[in-house]
Amino acid sequence: MKKIIVISIFLLSNFIMAQGKIMSKSANVIFEASVPSFEEVKAINNNVTVVVNTETGEIASLALMKAFRFKVALMEEHFNENYVESDRYPKAIFKGKIEGFEVNSLTATPKDFVINGKLELHGKSVAIKASAKMCKTTSGVNLQTNFWVNASDFDISIPAIVKNKVANKVAIQLTAVLR
Questions:
Q1: The whole model's pTM is what?
Q2: For residue 83, which of 33, 29, 158, 168 has the smallest C-alpha distance?
Q3: What is the pLDDT, as a whole number, of residue 11?
Q4: How far is CA 79 from CA 20, 110, 111, 156, in A?
Q5: Mean local confidence (pLDDT), 123-147
Q6: Whole-angstrom distance, CA of residue 120 vs CA of residue 94
Q7: DSSP string, 60-103
Q8: Hey, what CATH class is 16-178 in?
Q9: Domain locations in the chain as residue ranges
């Protein structure tokens, strides 16, 4: 009987604690550093974790760098070895806050928010301000945000030989269904 009570309390406490958070372990991040007239420099990571605290609007995200996939395998190799140095800096972490976020105000119509926070990548932390759209659907809360970062802000240098083929200004797009 004691075991049943202890197990019940444990399960109930986990349920109560989980009420304030929604998350996804399969969010998508696409980055693009393409330059017109040259080969596309674009990758996608479909295994990004995003967590939102529904009570405070705090948001956190984690992306493993080696999970980004390119159309060209050689680009992926150069990305991991020469640019982001994935063995030394294996992940990108974002921590911030969704301004004015109230989960109960979400409807099927997308609502605009501003996300402020810090992106840690390649051993550097840079302030990020991004617009986001969120809405409630039958599958959860949809989140989509786009923003730009400069590779140089993270001490990621682009070799002179490819400087005209790879943009320093990188477009980032995150899409998640949070449950």
A1: 0.87
A2: 158
A3: 45
A4: 37, 34, 35, 10
A5: 98
A6: 6
A7: EEEEEGGG-EESSHHHHHHIIIIIS-TTTS-EEEEEEEEET--G
A8: mainly beta
A9: 16-178
DSSP string across 129-173:
EEEEEEEEETTEEEEEEEEEEEGGGGT-PPPGGGTTTS-SEEEEE
Quick one: which H or E segment has residue 128?
strand 124-137
Question: Residue 39 and residue 41: Cα distance in Å, rounded?
Answer: 6
pLDDT at 25 over 60: yes
| Segment holding 7, helix H or strand E | helix 2-18
Q: Is residue 163's pLDDT more than 70?
A: yes
How is residue 159 written in tokens?
A: 């070799």
Nearest to 27 by CA among 144, 176, 132, 142: 176
pLDDT at 19: 62
Average pLDDT over residues 139-150: 98
Q: How far apart are CA 52 and CA 152, in angstroms?
A: 29
> How do residues 83-116 score in pLDDT, each as one tens digit?
999 999 999 999 999 999 999 999 999 999 999 9
CA separation for the pair 129, 55 (Å, rounded):
21
